[in-house]
């Protein structure tokens, strides 16, 4: 925000905020009704169109894939119809948020062909907006040709990570490497398409990966075992963005980095097996006894073998040498 004020100036930023504020739910659903200041200034809420069935979306959305047909699965998971006007949007899914230069060229060509607006999402995907239903088969074909039509949005495979030690000077761990490993394990275990559960990873306490507001959150931390440094994570469970405020995840336990994928798999499996119809992660977790109770089933994973028996526990993902914390000067806003 401070960079926006610095770049745009306060008045311009305020103008832009007011321009989009009328689309926010808060102005119509805030407890106690619309605040007097808003009512006085004539800030009309966006409202809900009567003849539209909007797509449920956001954290906890219980996405269900209804058919084995790839196009139907993409429609179920990646296409969203808006609340006010039924505007059609569709996600192009980017694994780990990565897009190659060839994919970028194709995405730009798709944008020109369909005349759609494109935005990036905070789950590291792209979304095409302002589509018509008739354009969806074309968009699916184009995205499939560049490997970006996998059902992803709001499914468990949509793991989000900050850049971590790949490029960040402040990183303690390789958060992207862990995200890759979790995604691979979920695919192996047939758990990559569980709906309504988010996993986010940050490579240090600065939290750029927003681990603290994810259902399953990992935060990179140095561990010491057998006289050596080793990559590790603090696991948080049950963070979410509510209508009125954000709830941070509860501390569950600390783990070696190499045990974190197994922990994620166990939590996703248990949630998938035990959740009630339409039940979100946090209500399930509370019914299961809270974060500490869920962590009891993971306790055996907090174990560092002797370096001679498990040398991989002392080397982070995508690294070749022994783990060592070497943080440098910050390049980002933190
Ligand atoms: S500073 Fe931000 S981007 Fe860098 S490792 Fe920490 S959380 Fe990740």
Structure commentary:
- By secondary structure, the protein is of the alpha+beta class.
- It has two domains: 50-153, Sulfite Reductase Hemoprotein,Domain 2 (Sulfite Reductase Hemoprotein, domain 2, Alpha-Beta Complex); 160-314, 2-Layer Sandwich (Sulfite Reductase Hemoprotein, domain 1).
- The chain is built from eleven helices and eleven strands.
- The strands form three sheets. A five-stranded mixed sheet has the order 5-6-7-8-11. It has a four-stranded antiparallel sheet with strand order 1-2-4-3.
- Helix 1 crosses helix 2 and helix 8 (175-188) crosses helix 9 (260-274).
- The longest helix has 15 residues, at 260-274.
- The radius of gyration is 21 Å and the shape is globular.
- It starts with a helix and ends in a 38-residue tail after the last helix.
- The mean pLDDT is 88.
- The protein binds iron/sulfur cluster (SF4).
User: Structural class of the helices, strands and pairings?
Assistant: alpha+beta
Helical proportion? Answer: 25-40%
Mean pLDDT: 88
CATH hierarchy class name of the largest domain: Alpha Beta
Reported by name, the CATH topology of the largest domain is: Sulfite Reductase Hemoprotein, domain 1
CATH architectural category of the largest domain: 2-Layer Sandwich
Count the domains: 2
DSSP, total strands: 11
- Bound chemical compounds: iron/sulfur cluster
Tally the helices: what do you get?
11
Shape call: globular
Radius of gyration: 21 Å
Low-confidence stretches: none
Measured between the Cα atoms of the first and last residue, the distance is 12 Å
Report the biggest beta sheet as strand number plus sense, adding barrel if it closes: 5 strands, mixed
Give the strand order, joined by hyphens, for the main sheet: 5-6-7-8-11
Q: Report the CATH superfamily of the largest domain.
A: Sulfite Reductase Hemoprotein, domain 1
């Amino acid at each position: 925000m401070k960079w926006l004020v610095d770049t745009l100036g306060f008045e311009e930023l305020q103008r832009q905020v007011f321009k989009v504020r009328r689309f926010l739910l808060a102005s119509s659903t805030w407890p106690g009704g619309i605040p007097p200041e808003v009512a006085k200034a004539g800030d009309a809420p966006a409202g809900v169109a009567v003849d539209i069935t909007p797509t449920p979306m956001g954290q906890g959305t219980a996405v269900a894939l209804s058919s084995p047909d790839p196009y139907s699965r993409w429609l179920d998971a990646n296409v969203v119809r808006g609340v006010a006007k039924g505007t059609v949007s569709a996600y192009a899914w980017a694994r780990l948020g990565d897009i190659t230069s060839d994919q970028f060229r194709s995405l730009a060509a798709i944008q020109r062909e369909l005349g759609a607006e494109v935005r990036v999402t905070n789950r590291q995907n792209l979304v095409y907006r302002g589509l018509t239903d008739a354009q969806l088969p074309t968009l699916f074909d184009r995205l499939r040709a560049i490997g970006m039509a996998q059902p992803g949005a709001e499914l468990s495979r949509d793991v989000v990570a900050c850049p971590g030690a790949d490029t960040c000077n402040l990183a303690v761990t390789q958060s992207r490497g862990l995200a890759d490993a979790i995604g691979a394990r979920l695919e192996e275990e047939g758990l990559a398409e569980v709906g309504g559960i988010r996993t986010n990873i940050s490579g240090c306490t600065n939290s750029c990966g927003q681990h603290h507001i994810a259902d399953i959150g990992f935060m990179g931390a140095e561990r010491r075992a057998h006289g050596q440094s080793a990559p590790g994570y603090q696991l948080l469970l049950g963070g979410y963005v509510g209508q009125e405020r954000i709830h941070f995840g509860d501390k569950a336990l600390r783990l070696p980095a190499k045990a974190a994928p197994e922990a994620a798999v166990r939590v996703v499996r248990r949630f998938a097996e035990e959740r009630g119809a339409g039940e979100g992660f946090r209500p399930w977790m509370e019914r299961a006894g809270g974060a500490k109770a869920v962590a009891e089933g993971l306790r055996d994973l907090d174990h560092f073998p002797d370096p001679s028996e498990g040398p991989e526990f002392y080397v982070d993902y995508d690294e070749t040498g022994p783990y060592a914390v070497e943080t440098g000067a910050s390049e980002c806003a933190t």
